[in-house]
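In response to reviewer comment 3 from the previous cycle, which asked for concrete evidence that the modeling workflow produces usable outputs, we include below a single protein chain processed end to end. The sequence was submitted unchanged, and the resulting structure tokens are shown without manual editing.
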Amino acid sequence: MPNFLPIAYFQNRFVPFAEANISIATRALHYGTGAFGGMRGFVDPQDPGQVLLFRLDRHSQRLSDSARFLCYDLPADKIQHAIVEFVRQNKPSNPFYIRPFVYASDLNIAPRLHDIEHDFFIYGLELGEYLSADGVNCRISSWTRQEDRSFPLRGKISAAYITSSLAKTEAVKSGFDEAILMNTQGKVCEATGMNIFMVRNGTLISPGFEQDILEGITRDSIITIAKDMGIPVVERPIDKSELLIADEAFLCGTAAKIAPIKRIENYELPGNRPITQKLRETLIAITENREPRYRDWVFPVRID
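The workflow returned the following structure tokens.
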């Protein structure tokens, strides 16, 4: 059982987590008409009376954009203010994860998004390492990533995660840690809840948005950091065979941060990962507010 933070934001007020309950008739439960965000929070190593949130503005804006697909007008500043107060209410003392969620809260049975009620809640849980920092073993999933012409992939829509769930279980049940999804063109897309990068000949490469990937905030951060370090970055389609012979490869996301890939199917990747390691160390330093150059990515919240 996860160690949930004690206070949730629910129906425009703060309540004990156990009291933040929805009806079994809630439309989003039946039709997947919800969208969520995910944020990491850390107690400031230099100041225990302060919590650090990574790229709060970008996370709030992406959730606001996702809500628009659900015909729900929820301004990013309202999301941001609610998250800040949520952190103050909970006063976390360990690394944690925040899950804000927008959804169609109406109880009517008809599958539609117009002329219905919507709502917004936030809860959180303590969270350490989501994937091993030593590396993960991946399989190529038999499930295919949705495509944008049939699903709003620019949003973090809850219904999309049935594919992720199927792929994750398939991977774990067959002896792997994680799954890599291909898109409908047969190109490398992403993992079950993370973006993917590879390194070849000193160049950092990732599938572009036209490959039906999620617009990952950690992915965006890594691209910026790499360019600032002078590492060449290319966004383009990646073939499966190219990924199998990469010099380095890693997954990235809010929960996973940066997780190196050790093996894909029966192909072992090199154990020496200088670019992956450098990016991981820098990203961690940024989230802990130890990199002045990226201080505007870190939002401090007083909890004392």
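The two ends are 28 Å apart (CA to CA). We consider this sufficient to address the reviewer's concern, and the full set will be provided in the supplementary archive.
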